[in-house]
Write a structure and sequence with these properties.
One of its GO terms (cellular component) is cytoplasm. The chain is α/β, with parallel strands linked by helices and 768 residues long. The chain contains 27 helices and 22 strands. It has 4 domains: 165 residues, Beta-Lactamase; 117 residues, 3-Layer(bba) Sandwich (Glucose Oxidase, domain 1), CATH 3.50.30; 106 residues, PtsI, HPr-binding domain (Enzyme I, Chain A, domain 2, Orthogonal Bundle); 325 residues, Alpha-Beta Barrel (TIM Barrel). It is 45% helix and 16% strand. The strands form 3 sheets. Strands 7-14-13-9-10-11-12-8 form an 8-stranded mixed β-sheet. The chain has an 8-stranded parallel β-barrel with strand order 15-16-17-18-19-20-21-22, surrounded by 7 helices.
Length: 768
Amino acid sequence: MLSILRSLVQEVNSARDLQEALDIIVSRVQKAMGTEVCSVYLLDPATNRYILMATEGLYRKAVGQVSLAYSEGLVGLVGSREEPINLEDAPSHPRYRYFPETGEERFRSFLGVPIIHHRRVLGVLVVQQRESSRCFDEGEEAFLVTVSAQLAGVIAHSEATGAISGLSLTGEEAHDVSFNGVPGAPGVAIGQSVVVYPAADLDVVPEKPTDDVDQELELFHAAVTAVREDIERVAKRLASQLRPEEQALFDVYLRMLGDDALPGEVANKIREGIWAQGALKQVVQQYVRHFEMMDDHYLQERAVDIRDLGRRLLSHLQEGEQKHLNYPERTVLVSEELTPAMLGEVPKGQLVGLVSVKGSSNSHVAILARAMGVPTVMGLVDIPVNQLDGKELIVDGFEGQIFASPSADLRSFYQAICDEEDELIRGLEVLKDKPCETTDHHRVSMLVNTGLMTDVVRSLSNGAEGIGLYRTEVPFMIKDRFPSEQEQREYYREQLEAFAPNPVTMRTLDIGGDKALTYFPIQEENPFLGWRGIRVTLDHPEIFLVQVRAMLKASEGLNNLQIMLPMISNISEVEESLHLIYRVYHEVREEGYEIHMPKVGVMVEVPAAVYQIRELADRVDFLSVGSNDLTQYLLAVDRNNPRVAQLYHSYHPAVLQALVRIAQDAHSVGKPVGICGELAGDPGGALLLMAMGYDSLSMNAASLPKVKSVIRSVSREWAIQLLEDVLLLDSPHVIKSCVDLALRNAGFGRYLRPGKSTAMAVSEAAVS
């Protein structure tokens, strides 16, 4: 059964569209189970009805014609219960619904299993059998459940592909196709998508037609000629070093490049109006699918050769093509995996949004996007990238959501958000030089998180009082080697000078987890619980010492440096780090530099540190909570994983209780405590943190004016009462709603961005 399942998944993965995928499923499952009927019903999001989309055994004319309400019939029962239903005599069941156009009156045994993807019921997979035959046994039920689970993602992807093309399951025009990912950089963007894909990757070649068949044929034939010459050249060079059977491999490649082989089929596809790269992709994937399904091991291996040949041809087709991309005035850049180089190709002022299948909110591109103020969504695992080129997209960087083919209503809804944001930012400029102080005179320091000089410019214009977190890994990430002491010194000096005499808190190198250096790869099964942060730099003191030395020398004459240690979980890590810092301090002084010993603090982002606050505070000058990591460690949720991202919630009662405890314990021993995480940049979260007693809030520069405006408009007493109220609640969603309601009642409803539910309500209203 495993080999059948593997073959089925491969076939369905290679299907050109949803209908072909469904036809493959019903045909192969019927054959594998030896049953008389296999059918797929999909739930149409537009009508909330199950539609018969494919069948093997029922009358074909019923496909697309038969539909059931959400809870109607046995199919509706399977979907609503979200579990298999196995019946020996289906017509006798009270929920049985008979459709004469299907011809199913001949079949009595019924087995239906739900198709579920990311908690959403996509449809129901059904097999049926005549009365005289056996009932479906447990093994068959288990097989069908396994098939359903394996194919759910493929069906979701295919369904999305069709929807993006502008058609619903019923063939009607589709609008407001949405995909959920991870917020990368806040804001809303409306623009035209430009898909950028890595060179020679057939899987991500976009599907698009061509208006110039002759030019595409010419390009393809030139690529075939170039690849043939490459292979002949290599074969000739290696002829003396290879045995005849090894030399024959090159002959196989050359035969596949014959006019009556692969090139001929690609040319036929181009003549049908498909651009050369898309035609090549379709033919190569079809060849690969056929070879991989063969029983002969030698022939299975030929699939690798076909794939390699396809990549070679694609590489020649793509030469120079990326340089000729046309970027519209409002470009939304889309890719399997965005890189900083891709961002740099877009003309200045034309990049309005970013969308990436891979990556996280901590990736280099996300950090760059926040610095540039470009709304970004990452981690869109189900998005069919190759269908998006040239489409109008709405990028919601607040919620981590994108909409394709937006309706006029949804577009105007999001345009209003863009306009409000612009107006709000202009209105808050007057607060730039005013202190962040409540109406009853409680003062909070407003700091920023930075990594690049572009962050600094925005921070100063928004009235930041210093840097609460300078991510020193950013200069390391933009190089192809470790930066020298002098290079680091120059980076650090820029930051220190820009904010002098205000404090600049520099976090020592924090790599590992989802932050990797190409020249210092860390391969681990569980990177977030592995070698990262202080663990790496203490194991490599040569890196740590050079970095601290560069920091200290950069601070000469300014003396506004503070050093912060990441991922501390043991007192011994603090003591070892302090020993190295003091050693460097004395060495730099001996070299003649007039510097002061900087304050040293630790980041509280591991649950173990929450219970050692007093012991840590005895050894350092300050503490700073990294609320992003602390939240994900407390909740055991990787916030960059779209499958569980909805479980990551900064307002979780456990997170709030931990934050209260940290502030109380730090102040009990007389040490200041700040916070540098997403919660500090959220107006409601900032109010709760201020009420808890946090001395400083550090956030992205864009969030600073809103947070300052809210804090200056309320009393600390009011915020403390709000905190006491929410600490009695046991649901993060209820807590968030309670805080939002308090903000609205205080006149700050305009600071609260509409959530997914609001956007989807607008979308559904537009559809209906």
